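To: structure desk
From: M.T.
Subject: fold request, one chain
Message: Could you run this one when you get a chance? Sequence is below, nothing fancy, just the single chain.
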Amino acid sequence: MSPIPPSHFYGLEPPLVVLSDLHLGHPASFIRDPAEVMPLLGSAKTAIFNGDTFEQLHFGRRDRAKQMLRRLMELCSDRGVQPILLSGNHDPMASSLHYLDLFDGKVLLTHGDILHEAVAPWSREAPAVLGERKRLLKTRPFEAELDDQTLLHKQSEMVAALYDHDVAQGLAAQGYMIGKFLAKPWRVFIALHYWSRAVHYARVFVQRYRPAARLFLFGHTHRPGVWSQKDLTVVNTGSFCPLSHPLVIHLDDQRAVVHRARFDRHVYHLGDELHRVIFR
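Reply: Done. Structure tokens follow.
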């Protein structure tokens, strides 16, 4: 079991808000202007963007994605909110932070791409990612520590840039995103199987690396939900993309509150409370 790095406790002023999978710059993302998500921050002092915040690998989208990311950072600064980026599989170089331990280890969050060695087994680049992983493992000894495994995943994910392609924007892109699954139904079955196993993968991950955690937050699969069992609550924050909807987590050292995000009058607002975890 990896020790919890003390540095991961410092520099984050509560209350905190956690969002993931904004996919800024992706043609199918629902977000056209980062200002749309600002009301979700509420009174937070720190905003944690838990991976796939922007499209970093795909060359045709990178310029727009970087512009939108810059605007997101500026909007946070204007509100007096400290933004913290964690890496995802669409933005593996966005940050040197790939996971966070919060509140004396009660909370663990990571994007979720590390839960499976193929990263996104339903994706067209999954075989290439697995091949790159095997190639990298031949050059180094296998290490079981969390930092080593995370680095291996991030390096494997870089081959996804080879699958760059341009599609239309807006509704056309959202329709394309759905249609490409319907055209290859085996990918739907792979995705559904992964969804059915994702919470199990999450629990195994926490038990292996952070068995004392009370709350585990991840995104990646775009399947939002809250699952509580015994002394661990698992939350997937969904996404701002088709076939999904986002969840928002507000937390401090006493509690974590999970809300739906609802879109109204061109911006997102905090919706119904779905779940609450009290830290004791």
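Reply (cont.): The mean pLDDT is 88. Let me know if you need anything else for the meeting.
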